[in-house]
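Below is how a single chain appears once it has passed through the pipeline. First comes the sequence as given, then the structure the pipeline wrote out for it. We keep one example in the README because the format questions we get most often are answered faster by looking than by reading.
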Amino acid sequence: MEGKALLFKQFAGVDAVPVCLATTDVDELVETVIRLAPGFGGINLEDISAPRCFEIEDRLRAALDIPVFHDDQHGTAVVALAALRNAARLTGRDLGELRAVVAGAGASGIAVSRILKEAGIGDISVADSKGIVHAGREDLNPAKAALAGWSNAAGYTGSVEEALRGADVFIGLSGATVTESAVAGMAGESIVFALSNPTPEVDPAVARRHARVVATGRSDHPNQINNVLAFPGIFRGAFDARATAITEGMKLAAAEAIAGAVGDDLRADFVVPSPFDPRVAPAVASAVAEAARRDGVARA
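Resulting structure:
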């Protein structure tokens, strides 16, 4: 947490204080953050597991008039969308032409799926440890039941590997293993984001035998999906606009700004900018502040 506070300061000039709470109770967490909130301009939630993280964020957003952001969800989602926009551009397609399969229905998996849906992806199916999340399952928690209501238009009910046949995009956020044959069975010019860290769902070298674009969560491979591309600039922009919340429009704007930083340098091993690119955080901040004003949550 101390390291993340340093990243806020280094990349966006945002002063951050790590506050670690000795409780996992939802009510205690919410009450404690509400009591602490008057001393802060925004709240960045960290390391809260699903499905509690959804309730905690929703309750805090409703109770507070400052930005509340769960980085494990939305930071990953923003950067993944930026990378996918550029991967689609590289392969000559729009998001609306793509069918994606997401392995992992936890905090980041649901958030990534939601932002891709907001951005207009053609279809998206999400799997947990028991297979594809669909409306016919009776073992879904409320977050997964809601997910089943707006995802999986193709109607898959089996495993990730079954859904991957002919799919354009795979996004791994589960720590599960995906076989080489499953990647080989995807559509041509496929896109594989194996984001579990330190062990991706499929070895990147193996994935590159079959996929046009491969991304991971690791710094020792090209196309690292790194949250530091998102959260410093998002908070800087929210603070510059004195925003009361971080809206879906602000997250989409952040993703577009990150994607735009790649520019004409786009290639299969460079669909997201370097975390050390000094242009990224200012571009994200400007786009987020503008989106806050457009969405009616700015006070400046």
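The chain is about 40% helix and 10% strand.

See the next section for the split statistics.
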